[in-house]
Amino acid sequence: MATNSTQTKYVPDTRESNPKSASQGEFVEQITRNPYKGFYVQDFKGNYYAGKSIKENGVQLERVRTQTPVSVSTLLEQTLLAGLKGFFKKILTQGELDRGVARRFFVQDKNTNKIVETDSATYLQAQSQFPNKNYAQIDWVIQGPAKDTSFNGIPYQGAESKNKKTIQALEKQMPGISLYVTNYAEFVQEITPTVPLNAYTEVQKDAQVTLDNSRKANFDTKK
């Protein structure tokens, strides 16, 4: 005898799960896409059906996929990973430009030894949430000249040499930093007087003395 194709296929009770209760938003009816709330069972193939058994209802359900909320710590990790991929680029502040020194922040994963540079806010937040990482912050000279030079025969150490020494000293605390930071002239502003400031001050002072003496001499001749 032919069977009616619209009838629910019989599935032995032992091959379906015990009924469970579905909350609002957990399932929709597969065909109508209407939300479903109530009892459901699961067959041995992993399909879901409405009701306390497949024979009771037979309406197949589909579980709604929900997106797992991203925690603050996960977002912070993603920020650090973005830095590892080269997405972070430090922007000098006006205060740093005025001082001639910039503050740079580095975080290192102790498991992989990978190093990332980040901003101060992310650095401080990471310190509080991920104490198992390696942290370091340095003062980076940005006032030129970049190269070593001399003024009136007096040797003057440029920003490159100063920054290189800083990174070499940091190598003990953060192994691999000398491979991560290799451009010691980065951010250096090549705006510098042609003579040292103290020499320039002395020249100005001598010129003023000469001018004062000249004025006094002229005044004396008028007597």
Order of strands across the main sheet: 1-2-3-4
Q: What separation lies between the terminal Cα atoms?
A: 144 Å
Q: What is the count of helical runs?
A: 6
**What form results from the Cα inertia axes?**
rod-shaped
Secondary structure: helix percent: 25-40%
The tally of strands reads 9
Question: Roughly what fraction of the amino acids lie in strands?
Answer: 15-25%
The residue-averaged pLDDT reads 77
Q: Tell me about the largest β-sheet.
A: 4 strands, antiparallel, barrel
The low-confidence parts are 1-8, 192-223
Rg over alpha carbons: 37 Å
Determine the structural class based on helices, strands and strand pairing: alpha+beta
Secondary-structure element pattern, one letter each: EEEEHHEEHEEEHHH
Please, how many domains? 2
Labels describing this entry:
3-stranded antiparallel β-sheet; 4-stranded antiparallel beta barrel; about 220 residues; disordered C terminus; alpha+beta
